[in-house]
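A quick aside before the break. I want you to see a complete sequence-to-structure record at least once, exactly as it would be stored in a machine-readable document. Don't worry about memorizing anything.
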Amino acid sequence: MASGRMHRNMNITFKLFATLTDYLPPDARRANQVELEVPDGATVLQVYTPYGLPDKMVHLVLVNGRYIAPEQRGTHVLQAGDALAIWPPIAGG
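That is the input. The structure line, written in tokens, reads:
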């Protein structure tokens, strides 16, 4: 059945660190990560936006350990199996 409207999904790992773990579902907070099924072609921004993270708290964004600059987050397309990790600003003292 060939259809131009076939939507495929892929699985990624979504990790939040420090105070951001509070934005994960309660059962995922201990491990600070959740396996997500997202549409093919999903961007970094499309994945984390539904979690309601405040922009000022999205400080360090890594995909498979590679830094994604703020201006790239809306265009960086994730691949199946990617690990998306986000850290808040860390205050030192």
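Two observations worth writing down. The two ends are 61 Å apart (CA to CA). Residues 44-48 form the longest helix (5 residues). We'll return to this after the break.
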